Amino acid sequence: MKTLKVIKIGGNIIDNEAALSSFIKDFSTIEGPKVLVHGGGKLATKLANQMNVPVKMTEGRRITDAATLDIITMVYAGKINKNIVAQLEARQCNAIGFSGADGNTIISEKRPIKTIDYGFVGDVKKVNTATLEVLLNNNITPVFCAITHDENGQLLNTNADTIASELAIGLTSIFKTELYYCFEKNGVLENVENDDSVIENINTESYKTLKENNIIFEGMLPKLDNCFHAINKNVQKVCIGKSKMLFDANNKHTTITK
Amino acid sequence: MKTLKVIKIGGNIIDNEAALSSFIKDFSTIEGPKVLVHGGGKLATKLANQMNVPVKMTEGRRITDAATLDIITMVYAGKINKNIVAQLEARQCNAIGFSGADGNTIISEKRPIKTIDYGFVGDVKKVNTATLEVLLNNNITPVFCAITHDENGQLLNTNADTIASELAIGLTSIFKTELYYCFEKNGVLENVENDDSVIENINTESYKTLKENNIIFEGMLPKLDNCFHAINKNVQKVCIGKSKMLFDANNKHTTITK
Q1: Chain B window 23-52: which residues touch A at a Cβ cutoff of 8 Å?
Q2: B3-11+13-182+239-250 belongs to CATH 3.40.1160.10
Q3: Angle at B170 between CA B164 and CA B171, to 5 degrees
Q4: Percentage with pLDDT > 70 across chain A
Q5: Which of residues 194-233 of B touch A (CB under 8 A)?
Q6: Is the ipTM above a cut-off of 0.90?
Q7: If DSSP codes are grouped into helix, strand and coil, which group holds residue B178?
């Protein structure tokens, strides 16, 4: 089995033209099959403000009414996705932009209303790998934005970290998969103020302790839950850190193990 | 060689939710390989107005500055394209949305400035069919929006009629191709006021006469030039009319012949 890398980039790279261009230059040199997943929340918020569409967030998640769904579809699948694809092509990395609707690759269901109505937000139900397998075997790199569909014609806003972990899990049927979350810090930090305080390894046991001691909290929890979900579902390697970790093994980062 | 249909739909279908839904239902029943190409100019103009970005048109073409390019990328490749793909998937038609950047399928060059600076508008230079061939042979329907790229990372706004004709021409290397332009009228009309006055056949000779007599003018000319370009480059069949012509051979329409 070949090794496939699923790499997720967030706002710190997407929102900065020079950082994105530099990342794409590096990414295009990665050998072997790879999948790129991108967010884009800040640009969506910017467009919503320009269009006077109210932005409502709950616990870091965007409440997605119909107008907001249009905005994120335009920003994620349109502006960000196509610009990344065009830049990859300019670096001779043959890429195709995807939402989960394209090729019916990621099916989700609208999140049921419990205490909060998230609107058009999807929880991933299934990843179909047949189309991705054809592309990856033809040396084409899928570039995923954070949108899925329900198979009934409805697009759904879906967390990009979750999309990355679900793709990494789904593709284990065809590849040995590795999952990399690239963000603005060197990894999970012992002290959020100190970028050198990277916790280099977190396993199920130490994660529990880190949570109990409030060393890991808030925004990191869903990301780490995605990491453990992946590592427990046959993903071979899960790492969190700056994108440098992909190209320089000595660059400190956090590795998640069982 | 199999027959492939390239079908272009315009604003009359895209801007009307019921018409689009009905078209997609019919389209998904078409057997054999097919490619869908869509415009979306009216929705782009609407978003530009909402965002206070001035809309400048010259001879029916959109002057495309950087802000306008962002808008059309968001509307065409995002909102319209992904909603069409999701609806096709709901009808069991496996589809993937494309700009010309995706899979490096359509390469264009920024239109040189002669008397008018069109901005980020592209003239098609080349269609790469390798990726499309893989998809079409795997029963996947490419859905193209009217955006191409220059292979140097720049997206370019490109006329959807032209994209349809260039795809139909490019794919003649693999398929017998047919090109269908669907719009709000029954075909090219002898009298624009009378939808029954369809000119059922136009050839190079009669086109000349129709132009000289001012029966065909203005907006129809670029569409017909695309038709003749296609029919002269090995496209087997070129038709203009309502989308009904695809499903009902008795529905009057215009056929272009050499």
Answers
A1: 47, 50-51
A2: yes
A3: 90
A4: 100
A5: none
A6: yes
A7: strand
